[in-house]
Amino acid sequence: MVIRAFRLLFIASLSVVVFLSADSGCMSDDDKIVEGFSEHLIADGYGYAFAVMAGDIDGDGDLDLSSGDATDNFLYWYENDGDGRFTRHFVQKDDPGWFERHDLGDVDGDGDLDIIIVKNQVGQLHWFENSGNPREEKLWKKHTVSSDFKRAYDVALKDLDGDGDLDAAATNYVSGQVVWFENPGKYPESVEWNEHIIDKDIGETRTIRFADFNADGIFDLFTTTRTTDLVVWYQNPGKSTDTPWKKHIVDDKTIQPTHGHAVDFDGDGDADIILGAGMLADTREEKSNEVIWYENVGTPGDGSTWGKHRLARFEFAFEAFAGDIDGDGDLDVAATAFGGNGGVIWLENNGDPHAEFTKHILKEIWPKANQIIMADLNGDGRLDIAASNERGANEIRWWRNEIRAKGN
């Protein structure tokens, strides 16, 4: 394991790894200011790093991180000391099947954050129960949502049937399914969740995220299909589990739409979509290799009409995430690229989301960068950026936001 600005301490008896970052005034080759950010390694030495998420896992008021190591069969959570220094703890060890993308949420309603995660290779969904004292160095109790969901890829939590608990929606990219799983409200290990198929055979399904696209007060969802070039949203029928979800096409022209999020990007009161497109696309392809936002047209829009806006050309764009990075009151975007060179950028909103954004490079060479998030990891009120990459450096990093809000 390569260690530069971070010292690695092995405490064998506790099976804990502590990562200590250098003070911001003492930089090394692995700790540097890039376009208003200082870059920090959280952990390297992964076999296959494909996801990172943020949430207050230990309930101490700051944001921790979670991450899976697919080929080494580990699931971790990283305890934040409040200033962006992280201690690694195990959620699960030696569990083959490729832990990848996941979500955090209070699945059992006991007031703390649990983890729901896909096992891509074996095609399963599991959730791991937070005991309320995750620092105790015990592996978390494992529950099975589905033992037969071939090549499970992405998962997200939301109350979809209005009964007060968190259900799950997921994609699997072999059979091209979009599915939601009904939380049974009881959690013996033998109980799997009821599966409801929303759509199938639509191509290599990738992202799955929630938003109320038609402003009817209930959560809908959207997904992408990389191989059939679809961005679609599905209208939640409400409490009935037997009513079909109506399918709405956002775009079927952009090549290889991959990962993104729903957010009110233009501030008009409805849910728009931001997205990376081009994960494995030909770099000469003009209808791909880009960061996009789809405008839910109207004030507010009802999800029936969409306008596409290119924020930047970005070869092999994988995922995009929106937030106010520079503190000027509008939404900027951070994005990753999956190609041989990879990379991480942020795009500065100059006040009009329909106009040109300014591209800032955070990391120019970072092969196969994948999931990216924004979160205030050091409690200074500014959004930081965290991301993972695989089969390149196989690591997770975060970029501390050093930008002062305009006028300060």
What would your notes on this structure say?
This protein has 408 residues and is mostly beta strands. It is 0% helix and 48% strand. The chain is built from no helices and 31 strands. The chain has a six-stranded antiparallel β-sheet, with no helix packed on it. A five-stranded antiparallel β-sheet has the order 3-4-31-30-29, with no helix packed on it. Residues 1-29 have low confidence and may be disordered.
The percentage helix is under 10%
Quaternary state of this entry equals single chain
Rg from C-alpha positions? 20 Å
> How do the strands of the widest beta sheet line up side by side?
1-2-8-7-6-5
Q: Report how far apart the termini are.
A: 40 Å
Low-confidence stretches: 1-29
| Integer average pLDDT | 90
Shape: globular
Strand content: over 45%
Task: Tell me the number of strands.
Answer: 31
Strand pairing plus helix content: what structural class? mainly beta
Continuous helix count: 0
Largest sheet: 6 strands, antiparallel
